[in-house]
What we know:
Its EC number is 3.6.1.56. The chain is mainly beta. It has helices spanning about 50-65, 125-135; strands at about 5-20, 25-30, 40, 65, 70-80, 85-95, 95-100, 105-115, 140-145, 150-160.
Amino acid sequence: MGVIVEKKKPLTLVLTLDEKNQKILLGMKKRGFGSNKFNGFGGKLEPGETVIQAAHRELEEEAMIRAVDMDKIGINLFTFENDPVALEVHVFRSTQFQGTPTETEEMRPEWFSYDMIPFDSMWADDRLWFPLFLKGQHFLGEFHFSEDQKRILEQDLRSVSQVPDEYDLSQRKLA
Ligand SMILES: COc1nc(N)nc2c1ncn2[C@H]1C[C@H](O)[C@@H](COP(=O)(O)OP(=O)(O)OP(=O)(O)O)O1
């Protein structure tokens, strides 16, 4: 079962929706972790930064847009075979923004219709939690990946009424 997790690293992930036209803004990651995959915009926290501050900053840095609203919709805890550090990814849903999505050093933004989301070119977990996300349902997920980061070996996903500030490792379902 799962892996022994010694610590977790918080990260942000912002997904921007055009609800009127039923479209989602994704970015092709051009470098680093998850490169050559479409994903939302986000990354690590800088020293002294809160999760929400990091979410806004990363969206501005990677897509050149400023979110007007930001709803924390879920947390996904990712573990990998033979790695004691879990990634705690705080997922945000934004429906209004200022500016024009623009290609940056890290990401190439592109809009996709809800029914044409390129799951084959995304992380394997995305097709599992996106349906909850698109419906606006709050969730907590755990995904345990193979060492090569390609396959999900175990997973747990549940709707919650409220998303906690952080993922309580003592409550892990895959422990
Ligand atoms: C493992 O499964 C994942 N699925 C999804 N959908 N997203 C994930 C997964 N693992 C990580 N992420 C997200 C979380 C972040 O938004 C990015 C990774 O951020 P990165 O490591 O690139 O952080 P930066 O601060 O931008 O990195 P630089 O140091 O390169 O600026 O992926």
